[in-house]
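Researcher: Go.
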Amino acid sequence: MTRPNSSKKTEMPKTDTSEKGLESLIVKFLVTSASYAQGEPTDYDRAHAVDLAKLLSFLGATQSKVVEQLTFSEDGPKRLQFLARLQGEIAKRGVIDVLRKGIEHGAAHIDLFYGTPSPGNAKAVERFSQNIFSVTRQLRYSKDETQLALDLGVFINGLPIATFELKNQLTKQTVEDAVQQYKRDRDPRELLFQFGRCVVHFAVDDQEVRFCTALKGKDSWFLPFNKGWNDGAGNPPSPDGLKTDYLWREILTRPRLTDILENYAQVVEEKDPRTGKKKYDQIFPRYHQLGVVRKLLADTKARGAGQRYLIEHSAGSGKSNSIAWLAHQLVGLEQGSKEIFGSVIVVTDRRILDKQIRNTIKNFAQVGSIVGHAEHSGDLRKFITDGKKIIITTVQKFPFILEEIGNEHRGRTFAIIIDEAHSSQGGRAAAQMNIALSAKGGEAEEETFEDTVNRIMESRKMLPNASY
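Model: Structure:
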């Protein structure tokens, strides 16, 4: 048996984590492993904030008759009319909606993206493969002659999806420097940075990722997009090199990025109840939100109805959106071409969540009527009987729900999402603690609705035709 020469050390290949090295690393992975095309900075049309070469290439390959009919394959007034129309629709609806629904131009409908193909649909598979995902280095975005450039830009069919500022801690530049660069040096009046023009802006170093969906100068709000590590912030070590490589290895792949655009990213409208003034926010999921929804969907798809899950979210972590995204996607979940749940019931005591879920679902569903708000037991019974896909109701109705689905609707399946069913600040646990701390003692408060939910859960009388 021969032993390896222990005096000879095997040298690990070094990862170039300089700014340019990180740029090269990301581009190399996307182009060689994720089927991206490499864009040219000169193809970027700064007047319309699109990669013109990729946009025309996609339209020529997928909708050549429309291109011929509208005669915008060649430079000239017709092309400018089309680009002006596209720009106007993005300004009005945002790039996410334009990708999902396309645009009308003259008498023609123009598709700008082909979504995830349904199983067994060969035509849809072929169409999805025709999407051009591309990445461009040193993207010169400014209309003036300063030639200001971003480190990277990601496009789908020529439309901007993500921008990146990359830093490196070895050169004493961190993710915070990237954030400050966006706040200080990236003028939100530039077309690419205007609201809804681009889906997300990433600040990245070799340790952390942050993102922003609406650049507003020094008021830009960046959220962490980290995995978390040892029950805290940050990212775990990566076997492949950089702690942040999950961003391009997991998130930016064609199927995963498509999933985000179809089921998570959106522009939501909020109305001030006092002034009636409308406000718009662009939403992009945080890493943990993607994680929890995708894990629940995968487990449900594998195991079917009848399971129980506990999801822990800390305050301010976007729980309302996580619930809305989960409810929306549970509706269409299938196992062996058969839907797993007839209805999804969201149980909450928060009116704000009720409104948020309805607004979120409305952005994804073709028909807003799939969501029903059951304020009274009669509404709830009618919605369940009618097979309403998503039913939002209050925690007070929880015992009634179990009674209905256990008797009248035993043959159907349900997903029941209970919001904050075990808050440590309220209910019997807090009451008992207050009695113990009181000098004179006292009587226990009567059971709260939350306690009722917990008692039913603890008694394990959970019906097998529902997941909770």
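Model: The first strand starts at residue 37 and ends at 39.
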